[in-house]
Structures are given as C-alpha cells and as structure tokens.
Write a structure and sequence with these properties.
By secondary structure, this protein is α+β, with helices and mostly antiparallel strands. It has two helices and four strands; from the N terminus they run ββββαα. About 35% of the residues lie in helices and about 35% in strands.
C-alpha cells in the first residue's frame, strides 16, 4: 500500500508466515501458529516493523493480523493526523480489494 504525505512516500507491506514454515523451529515450543509482519517504509527506507501473533487456539485471519500489526507499527507515529490518513487509505484500499474477491 502506497500513500503520499506531503513530500514523503509511505509504503506499507505485510507478510504472513505459519510457524511450521520457519526453519529450525520446534512447533511445540512456540505459543503461536501464525505471525503477521508489518513494515513501514518512508522514502524507500524501512523505519518501523511490527508483528501480530495468532494463538494456536485461534482461527488465523490475514485481515485481523494486518490490522493488529499495522496498529502496533503506527504507535511510533507521533502525529495523530498521519495515523488517521493511513487508516483512511487502508480502509479505502481494503474495500477495493474485497470487491474484487467477491
């Protein structure tokens, strides 16, 4: 997702990984089944990253993982207006994507 803020370009990327797919990990020692990562780049430089973990007891949801990880990443943005713009763009783009899926 790309957003233009004044003179800066903000890009947000998500990744989803199942714990079983991580090499060298013993699944019995990990308290989660899936992990969603969110990275925020400003002018081509990663400035924030965050994660959302899905418990083994819960049903994994990419949508929920994206929201949680984005919320955590945006905690670093001090300006409330910037967070507001990013969330508006997120929901606008999500509506476009969900229409294509149906």
């Amino acid at each position: 997702m790309k957003i233009k803020l004044d003179t800066e370009i903000v890009e947000i990327y998500w990744g989803h990984i199942r714990a079983l797919a991580i090499k060298g990990i013993n699944i019995d020692e990990v308290p989660y089944s899936y992990r969603t990562s969110c990275s925020i780049k400003i002018n081509d430089k990663v400035v924030f990253s965050s994660y959302a973990y899905c418990s083994k007891k819960d049903q994994f949801s990419k949508k929920k993982g994206r929201k949680i990880s984005l919320t955590r990443a945006l905690e670093f943005f001090v300006e409330k207006e910037v967070r507001k713009i990013i969330w508006q763009e997120y929901f606008k783009q999500w509506k476009i994507i969900s229409k294509r899926i149906k």
